[in-house]
Structure to design on (397 residues):
Protein backbone atom coordinates (compact mmCIF):
# COMPACT_ATOMS: atom_id res chain seq x y z
CA UNK A 1 0.00 0.00 0.00
CA UNK A 2 1.43 3.40 -0.90
CA UNK A 3 2.22 5.66 2.05
CA UNK A 4 -0.90 7.61 3.02
CA UNK A 5 -0.54 11.40 3.05
CA UNK A 6 -1.62 13.50 6.03
CA UNK A 7 -4.72 14.87 4.35
CA UNK A 8 -6.00 11.40 3.50
CA UNK A 9 -5.27 10.18 7.01
CA UNK A 10 -7.28 13.05 8.46
CA UNK A 11 -10.18 12.25 6.16
CA UNK A 12 -10.28 8.62 7.17
CA UNK A 13 -9.78 9.38 10.82
CA UNK A 14 -12.62 11.90 10.80
CA UNK A 15 -14.89 9.46 9.02
CA UNK A 16 -14.18 6.24 10.82
CA UNK A 17 -12.24 6.88 14.02
CA UNK A 18 -8.94 5.15 14.77
CA UNK A 19 -10.40 1.64 14.49
CA UNK A 20 -12.01 2.47 11.16
CA UNK A 21 -8.74 3.90 9.89
CA UNK A 22 -6.98 0.59 10.35
CA UNK A 23 -9.81 -1.28 8.67
CA UNK A 24 -9.94 1.13 5.73
CA UNK A 25 -6.20 0.92 5.18
CA UNK A 26 -6.34 -2.86 5.24
CA UNK A 27 -9.30 -3.24 2.90
CA UNK A 28 -8.30 -0.88 0.12
CA UNK A 29 -4.80 -1.29 -1.35
CA UNK A 30 -5.14 1.96 -3.27
CA UNK A 31 -5.80 4.01 -0.14
CA UNK A 32 -9.33 4.88 -1.30
CA UNK A 33 -12.62 4.33 0.50
CA UNK A 34 -14.22 0.92 0.34
CA UNK A 35 -17.19 1.02 -2.03
CA UNK A 36 -16.04 4.27 -3.62
CA UNK A 37 -17.85 3.42 -6.88
CA UNK A 38 -21.30 3.45 -5.27
CA UNK A 39 -24.29 5.05 -6.98
CA UNK A 40 -25.13 8.68 -6.10
CA UNK A 41 -27.48 9.24 -3.18
CA UNK A 42 -29.49 12.19 -1.82
CA UNK A 43 -29.57 13.27 1.82
CA UNK A 44 -32.12 15.81 3.05
CA UNK A 45 -31.14 18.32 5.74
CA UNK A 46 -33.87 20.20 7.62
CA UNK A 47 -32.89 23.46 9.36
CA UNK A 48 -34.26 26.97 9.93
CA UNK A 49 -33.06 29.49 7.37
CA UNK A 50 -34.41 32.62 9.10
CA UNK A 51 -35.40 33.86 12.53
CA UNK A 52 -33.93 33.46 15.98
CA UNK A 53 -32.82 29.85 15.43
CA UNK A 54 -31.07 30.48 12.10
CA UNK A 55 -27.61 30.57 13.71
CA UNK A 56 -28.16 27.06 15.06
CA UNK A 57 -29.38 25.92 11.65
CA UNK A 58 -26.23 27.32 10.07
CA UNK A 59 -24.09 25.35 12.53
CA UNK A 60 -25.94 22.15 11.66
CA UNK A 61 -25.33 22.69 7.96
CA UNK A 62 -21.67 23.51 8.61
CA UNK A 63 -21.05 20.39 10.67
CA UNK A 64 -22.59 18.01 8.16
CA UNK A 65 -20.85 19.69 5.23
CA UNK A 66 -17.47 19.48 6.98
CA UNK A 67 -17.76 15.72 7.20
CA UNK A 68 -18.56 15.60 3.50
CA UNK A 69 -15.58 17.86 2.76
CA UNK A 70 -13.26 15.48 4.61
CA UNK A 71 -14.67 12.52 2.72
CA UNK A 72 -14.69 13.71 -0.89
CA UNK A 73 -18.44 14.47 -0.72
CA UNK A 74 -19.25 10.80 -0.11
CA UNK A 75 -21.07 8.77 2.51
CA UNK A 76 -20.41 5.05 2.67
CA UNK A 77 -18.63 5.25 -0.68
CA UNK A 78 -21.56 6.95 -2.46
CA UNK A 79 -21.39 10.45 -3.96
CA UNK A 80 -23.80 12.65 -2.00
CA UNK A 81 -26.13 15.43 -3.05
CA UNK A 82 -27.07 17.33 0.11
CA UNK A 83 -30.48 18.99 -0.23
CA UNK A 84 -31.48 21.53 2.44
CA UNK A 85 -35.04 22.53 3.31
CA UNK A 86 -36.27 25.29 5.62
CA UNK A 87 -37.97 23.89 8.73
CA UNK A 88 -39.50 27.27 9.51
CA UNK A 89 -40.70 27.86 13.04
CA UNK A 90 -43.58 25.43 13.61
CA UNK A 91 -44.81 21.92 12.95
CA UNK A 92 -46.66 22.90 9.78
CA UNK A 93 -43.60 24.40 8.08
CA UNK A 94 -41.47 21.49 9.30
CA UNK A 95 -43.83 18.97 7.73
CA UNK A 96 -43.75 20.91 4.46
CA UNK A 97 -39.94 20.66 4.49
CA UNK A 98 -40.06 16.89 5.07
CA UNK A 99 -42.64 16.39 2.33
CA UNK A 100 -40.47 18.37 -0.10
CA UNK A 101 -37.40 16.26 0.64
CA UNK A 102 -39.26 12.96 0.47
CA UNK A 103 -40.67 14.01 -2.91
CA UNK A 104 -37.08 14.44 -4.13
CA UNK A 105 -36.24 10.86 -3.22
CA UNK A 106 -33.80 11.28 -0.34
CA UNK A 107 -32.25 8.15 1.16
CA UNK A 108 -32.22 9.67 4.66
CA UNK A 109 -33.01 12.86 6.54
CA UNK A 110 -31.07 14.83 9.15
CA UNK A 111 -31.13 18.13 11.04
CA UNK A 112 -34.18 19.65 12.85
CA UNK A 113 -33.62 22.40 15.44
CA UNK A 114 -37.03 23.07 16.99
CA UNK A 115 -38.57 20.46 19.34
CA UNK A 116 -42.08 21.43 18.22
CA UNK A 117 -41.06 20.72 14.62
CA UNK A 118 -39.58 17.34 15.59
CA UNK A 119 -42.81 16.29 17.30
CA UNK A 120 -44.84 17.59 14.38
CA UNK A 121 -42.97 15.56 11.73
CA UNK A 122 -42.80 12.34 13.75
CA UNK A 123 -45.70 10.55 12.08
CA UNK A 124 -44.70 11.67 8.58
CA UNK A 125 -41.19 10.26 8.99
CA UNK A 126 -42.37 7.00 10.54
CA UNK A 127 -44.96 6.48 7.80
CA UNK A 128 -42.42 7.20 5.04
CA UNK A 129 -39.97 4.67 6.57
CA UNK A 130 -37.03 6.97 5.83
CA UNK A 131 -34.50 7.32 8.66
CA UNK A 132 -34.12 10.73 10.27
CA UNK A 133 -30.88 11.29 12.17
CA UNK A 134 -31.86 14.34 14.19
CA UNK A 135 -28.89 16.51 15.13
CA UNK A 136 -30.50 18.90 17.61
CA UNK A 137 -34.18 18.78 18.64
CA UNK A 138 -34.79 15.91 21.03
CA UNK A 139 -37.84 16.27 23.30
CA UNK A 140 -38.26 13.56 25.93
CA UNK A 141 -41.82 12.93 24.72
CA UNK A 142 -40.50 11.63 21.38
CA UNK A 143 -40.76 7.93 22.18
CA UNK A 144 -41.56 4.59 20.53
CA UNK A 145 -40.00 5.63 17.22
CA UNK A 146 -38.44 3.28 14.67
CA UNK A 147 -37.04 5.63 12.04
CA UNK A 148 -36.01 8.63 14.16
CA UNK A 149 -32.52 8.63 15.69
CA UNK A 150 -30.76 11.51 17.43
CA UNK A 151 -27.06 12.32 17.72
CA UNK A 152 -27.60 15.21 20.13
CA UNK A 153 -29.16 14.49 23.56
CA UNK A 154 -32.51 14.27 25.31
CA UNK A 155 -33.37 17.65 26.79
CA UNK A 156 -34.18 16.43 30.28
CA UNK A 157 -30.60 15.14 30.49
CA UNK A 158 -29.29 18.72 30.49
CA UNK A 159 -31.49 19.40 33.51
CA UNK A 160 -30.40 16.18 35.20
CA UNK A 161 -26.71 16.95 34.71
CA UNK A 162 -27.17 20.37 36.32
CA UNK A 163 -29.42 18.98 39.04
CA UNK A 164 -26.82 16.53 40.26
CA UNK A 165 -24.10 19.18 40.18
CA UNK A 166 -26.02 21.94 41.96
CA UNK A 167 -27.47 19.57 44.56
CA UNK A 168 -23.97 19.13 45.97
CA UNK A 169 -22.69 22.63 45.18
CA UNK A 170 -25.36 24.93 46.63
CA UNK A 171 -24.95 25.57 50.35
CA UNK A 172 -27.73 24.74 52.85
CA UNK A 173 -30.07 27.68 53.21
CA UNK A 174 -29.27 29.14 49.78
CA UNK A 175 -32.01 29.90 47.27
CA UNK A 176 -32.13 29.02 43.57
CA UNK A 177 -34.54 30.79 41.21
CA UNK A 178 -35.64 28.91 38.06
CA UNK A 179 -36.68 30.79 34.92
CA UNK A 180 -37.71 28.75 31.87
CA UNK A 181 -39.43 29.44 28.53
CA UNK A 182 -42.99 28.12 28.45
CA UNK A 183 -42.26 25.42 25.87
CA UNK A 184 -41.81 21.67 25.42
CA UNK A 185 -38.06 22.13 25.76
CA UNK A 186 -38.31 24.25 28.89
CA UNK A 187 -40.59 21.71 30.55
CA UNK A 188 -38.10 18.92 29.76
CA UNK A 189 -35.15 20.77 31.27
CA UNK A 190 -37.06 21.84 34.39
CA UNK A 191 -38.43 18.35 35.02
CA UNK A 192 -35.02 16.70 34.58
CA UNK A 193 -33.48 19.20 36.98
CA UNK A 194 -36.10 18.67 39.70
CA UNK A 195 -35.87 14.88 39.41
CA UNK A 196 -32.14 15.00 40.10
CA UNK A 197 -32.00 17.95 42.52
CA UNK A 198 -35.12 17.04 44.50
CA UNK A 199 -38.42 18.78 43.85
CA UNK A 200 -39.08 19.35 47.57
CA UNK A 201 -35.60 20.70 48.34
CA UNK A 202 -36.07 24.02 50.19
CA UNK A 203 -33.20 25.60 48.25
CA UNK A 204 -35.47 25.94 45.20
CA UNK A 205 -37.02 29.38 45.59
CA UNK A 206 -40.66 28.57 44.96
CA UNK A 207 -42.05 27.33 41.65
CA UNK A 208 -40.35 27.84 38.31
CA UNK A 209 -41.13 31.11 36.59
CA UNK A 210 -42.40 30.43 33.05
CA UNK A 211 -41.70 33.15 30.55
CA UNK A 212 -42.09 33.75 26.81
CA UNK A 213 -40.74 31.13 24.40
CA UNK A 214 -40.33 33.64 21.54
CA UNK A 215 -37.25 33.02 19.39
CA UNK A 216 -36.96 36.79 18.76
CA UNK A 217 -37.98 38.40 22.06
CA UNK A 218 -38.43 42.15 22.55
CA UNK A 219 -36.10 44.38 24.56
CA UNK A 220 -38.31 44.07 27.62
CA UNK A 221 -39.77 40.59 27.08
CA UNK A 222 -38.30 39.18 30.28
CA UNK A 223 -38.30 42.26 32.50
CA UNK A 224 -41.38 41.40 34.54
CA UNK A 225 -40.44 37.75 35.06
CA UNK A 226 -36.87 38.63 36.00
CA UNK A 227 -38.30 41.04 38.55
CA UNK A 228 -40.37 38.22 40.07
CA UNK A 229 -37.27 36.05 40.37
CA UNK A 230 -35.14 38.76 41.93
CA UNK A 231 -37.88 39.53 44.46
CA UNK A 232 -36.96 36.13 45.98
CA UNK A 233 -33.39 37.34 46.62
CA UNK A 234 -31.85 34.26 45.00
CA UNK A 235 -28.25 33.20 45.51
CA UNK A 236 -28.20 31.73 41.99
CA UNK A 237 -30.37 31.50 38.88
CA UNK A 238 -31.05 28.48 36.69
CA UNK A 239 -32.36 29.23 33.20
CA UNK A 240 -32.73 27.67 29.77
CA UNK A 241 -32.56 29.75 26.58
CA UNK A 242 -30.98 29.39 23.16
CA UNK A 243 -29.85 31.68 20.36
CA UNK A 244 -31.09 35.27 20.29
CA UNK A 245 -33.50 34.59 23.17
CA UNK A 246 -30.56 33.69 25.41
CA UNK A 247 -28.67 36.84 24.48
CA UNK A 248 -31.67 39.02 25.28
CA UNK A 249 -32.42 37.23 28.55
CA UNK A 250 -28.89 37.61 29.91
CA UNK A 251 -28.79 41.27 28.81
CA UNK A 252 -32.04 42.02 30.61
CA UNK A 253 -30.95 40.03 33.67
CA UNK A 254 -27.75 42.09 33.99
CA UNK A 255 -29.63 45.34 33.36
CA UNK A 256 -31.89 44.41 36.28
CA UNK A 257 -28.79 44.48 38.48
CA UNK A 258 -28.24 40.76 39.00
CA UNK A 259 -24.52 39.90 39.11
CA UNK A 260 -24.69 36.51 40.83
CA UNK A 261 -24.13 32.97 39.51
CA UNK A 262 -26.07 31.78 36.46
CA UNK A 263 -26.40 28.11 35.54
CA UNK A 264 -27.91 26.74 32.36
CA UNK A 265 -27.75 24.02 29.72
CA UNK A 266 -24.84 24.90 27.44
CA UNK A 267 -27.03 26.09 24.58
CA UNK A 268 -27.23 29.45 26.38
CA UNK A 269 -23.62 30.32 25.54
CA UNK A 270 -23.01 28.39 22.32
CA UNK A 271 -21.68 29.95 19.13
CA UNK A 272 -22.70 33.46 18.15
CA UNK A 273 -24.82 33.79 21.30
CA UNK A 274 -21.66 33.94 23.41
CA UNK A 275 -20.10 36.52 21.11
CA UNK A 276 -23.21 38.71 21.32
CA UNK A 277 -23.46 38.51 25.12
CA UNK A 278 -19.94 39.89 25.51
CA UNK A 279 -18.95 40.54 29.14
CA UNK A 280 -22.47 39.80 30.38
CA UNK A 281 -21.64 36.12 29.89
CA UNK A 282 -18.51 36.01 32.07
CA UNK A 283 -18.50 33.18 34.64
CA UNK A 284 -21.79 31.62 33.50
CA UNK A 285 -21.54 27.87 34.10
CA UNK A 286 -23.24 25.44 31.75
CA UNK A 287 -23.71 21.72 31.27
CA UNK A 288 -23.32 20.27 27.78
CA UNK A 289 -22.33 17.12 25.93
CA UNK A 290 -19.45 18.86 24.16
CA UNK A 291 -16.69 21.41 24.59
CA UNK A 292 -14.46 22.59 21.76
CA UNK A 293 -11.36 22.11 23.94
CA UNK A 294 -11.92 18.41 24.68
CA UNK A 295 -8.63 16.58 24.28
CA UNK A 296 -9.20 13.52 22.13
CA UNK A 297 -8.02 12.58 18.66
CA UNK A 298 -11.42 12.87 16.98
CA UNK A 299 -11.98 16.37 18.41
CA UNK A 300 -8.50 17.56 17.47
CA UNK A 301 -9.27 16.65 13.85
CA UNK A 302 -12.81 18.05 13.91
CA UNK A 303 -12.08 21.29 15.76
CA UNK A 304 -8.94 22.00 13.76
CA UNK A 305 -10.63 21.48 10.40
CA UNK A 306 -13.71 23.43 11.50
CA UNK A 307 -11.64 26.43 12.62
CA UNK A 308 -9.57 26.24 9.44
CA UNK A 309 -12.66 26.35 7.26
CA UNK A 310 -14.96 28.71 9.20
CA UNK A 311 -12.55 30.70 11.44
CA UNK A 312 -14.61 30.04 14.58
CA UNK A 313 -14.69 27.29 17.18
CA UNK A 314 -17.25 24.52 16.65
CA UNK A 315 -20.40 24.19 18.74
CA UNK A 316 -22.38 21.20 19.98
CA UNK A 317 -24.79 21.82 17.09
CA UNK A 318 -22.04 21.46 14.50
CA UNK A 319 -20.56 18.47 16.33
CA UNK A 320 -23.88 16.60 16.49
CA UNK A 321 -24.47 17.21 12.78
CA UNK A 322 -20.93 16.04 11.98
CA UNK A 323 -21.72 12.88 13.95
CA UNK A 324 -25.02 12.50 12.09
CA UNK A 325 -23.00 12.37 8.88
CA UNK A 326 -20.58 9.93 10.51
CA UNK A 327 -23.27 7.46 11.57
CA UNK A 328 -24.95 7.72 8.17
CA UNK A 329 -21.57 7.03 6.56
CA UNK A 330 -21.11 3.88 8.62
CA UNK A 331 -24.70 2.68 8.23
CA UNK A 332 -24.67 3.16 4.45
CA UNK A 333 -21.46 1.14 4.27
CA UNK A 334 -23.10 -1.68 6.22
CA UNK A 335 -26.25 -1.55 4.10
CA UNK A 336 -24.44 -2.67 0.94
CA UNK A 337 -23.90 -1.49 -2.60
CA UNK A 338 -27.47 -0.34 -3.36
CA UNK A 339 -28.96 0.58 0.01
CA UNK A 340 -32.62 1.34 0.57
CA UNK A 341 -33.84 3.63 3.33
CA UNK A 342 -35.10 0.63 5.28
CA UNK A 343 -31.72 -1.14 4.98
CA UNK A 344 -29.92 1.98 6.21
CA UNK A 345 -32.28 2.14 9.17
CA UNK A 346 -31.56 -1.47 10.08
CA UNK A 347 -27.82 -0.81 9.77
CA UNK A 348 -28.07 2.13 12.18
CA UNK A 349 -29.20 -0.34 14.82
CA UNK A 350 -26.05 -2.40 14.30
CA UNK A 351 -23.58 0.42 14.94
CA UNK A 352 -21.46 0.11 18.04
CA UNK A 353 -19.38 2.77 19.67
CA UNK A 354 -18.93 6.04 17.77
CA UNK A 355 -15.51 7.72 17.95
CA UNK A 356 -16.78 11.26 18.26
CA UNK A 357 -15.35 14.72 19.03
CA UNK A 358 -17.45 14.63 22.22
CA UNK A 359 -15.82 11.34 23.27
CA UNK A 360 -16.96 7.77 22.71
CA UNK A 361 -20.73 7.27 22.66
CA UNK A 362 -23.29 4.82 21.35
CA UNK A 363 -27.00 4.67 20.61
CA UNK A 364 -29.18 3.37 23.42
CA UNK A 365 -32.53 1.62 23.06
CA UNK A 366 -34.54 4.86 22.57
CA UNK A 367 -32.17 5.74 19.68
CA UNK A 368 -30.43 8.58 21.53
CA UNK A 369 -26.79 8.82 22.68
CA UNK A 370 -25.42 7.35 25.87
CA UNK A 371 -22.74 9.96 26.49
CA UNK A 372 -20.81 12.11 28.91
CA UNK A 373 -21.94 15.56 30.03
CA UNK A 374 -19.42 18.27 30.91
CA UNK A 375 -19.32 21.36 33.10
CA UNK A 376 -18.07 24.50 31.34
CA UNK A 377 -17.49 28.08 32.45
CA UNK A 378 -17.35 31.22 30.33
CA UNK A 379 -13.86 32.69 30.70
CA UNK A 380 -11.78 35.17 28.79
CA UNK A 381 -9.25 33.59 26.41
CA UNK A 382 -7.11 36.52 25.31
CA UNK A 383 -9.45 38.91 23.53
CA UNK A 384 -12.34 36.45 23.14
CA UNK A 385 -14.74 34.65 25.45
CA UNK A 386 -14.71 30.88 25.55
CA UNK A 387 -16.64 28.02 27.15
CA UNK A 388 -13.77 26.48 29.12
CA UNK A 389 -14.05 22.82 30.13
CA UNK A 390 -14.06 22.46 33.93
CA UNK A 391 -14.91 18.81 34.61
CA UNK A 392 -17.05 15.82 33.70
CA UNK A 393 -20.49 15.81 35.32
CA UNK A 394 -22.14 12.51 34.48
CA UNK A 395 -22.73 9.83 31.88
CA UNK A 396 -26.40 9.88 30.85
CA UNK A 397 -28.63 8.17 28.34
Amino acid sequence: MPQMNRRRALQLLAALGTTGLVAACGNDPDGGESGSTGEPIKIGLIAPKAGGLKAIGDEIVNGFQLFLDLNEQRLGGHPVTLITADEGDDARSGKAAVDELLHQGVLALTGVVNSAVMLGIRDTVEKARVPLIGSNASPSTLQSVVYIWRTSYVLDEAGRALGGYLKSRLRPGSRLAIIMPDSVSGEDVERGFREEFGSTDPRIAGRAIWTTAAANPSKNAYTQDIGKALDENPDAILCFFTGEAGVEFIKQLRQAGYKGPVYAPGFLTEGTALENMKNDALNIQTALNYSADLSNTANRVFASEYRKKLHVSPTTYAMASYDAAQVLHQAIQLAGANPSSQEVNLALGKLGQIDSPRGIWQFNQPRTPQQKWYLRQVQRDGQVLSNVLISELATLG
Observations:
- The first strand starts at residue 41 and ends at 47.
